[in-house]
Specification:
Blueprint (H helix, E strand, L loop, with lengths): L1 H10 L5 E4 L13 E4 L7 H6 L4 E5 L2 H12 L4 E6 L3 E2 L2 E2 L3 E3 L3 H11 L10
Parallel strand pairs: 1-2, 3-4, 4-7
Antiparallel strand pairs: 5-6
């Protein structure tokens, strides 16, 4: 999934930054322009979320769930495509905006993007 996202960003003339779980920058997929090896494993999920203005959650692995939690905790918008559905007391409480297609996920992410202090360059 990360490779497909990287290729899509690259094809759209984006700068692709990979925050890697391991220490080897060569482990990044070929579409990554800047590889940031962290050696942090799944703990890097907090870094990924904090550097984003919006999060698109795809699939249902535990790492995805942690990223959803980090994003919701920090007030970042979360767009969900075929991902976790959470409920409390029989009603939805997730805060995840569900979409039907990958294209809708990208559109929603751009529409809900949160401009954070980290995204400004002086």
């Amino acid at each position: 999934m990360m490779g497909a996202a990287s290729r899509g960003a690259k094809e759209a003339s984006g700068l692709v930054v990979g925050i890697l779980p391991g220490l080897d920058p060569n482990a990044a997929n070929p579409a990554v322009d800047i590889a940031i090896p962290t050696g942090m494993g799944q703990l890097r999920n907090g870094l990924v979320v904090n550097s984003a203005g919006a999060v698109i959650a795809v699939g249902g692995e535990w790492g995805t769930l942690s990223e959803i939690g980090f994003a919701l905790k920090t007030g970042k918008p979360v767009i969900g495509w075929r991902t976790w559905e959470m409920a409390q007391g029989g009603r939805s409480r997730s805060g995840v905006v569900p979409v039907e297609t990958a294209s809708q996920a990208v559109e929603e992410a751009f529409a809900r993007y949160v401009d954070t202090p980290q995204s400004h360059h002086e």
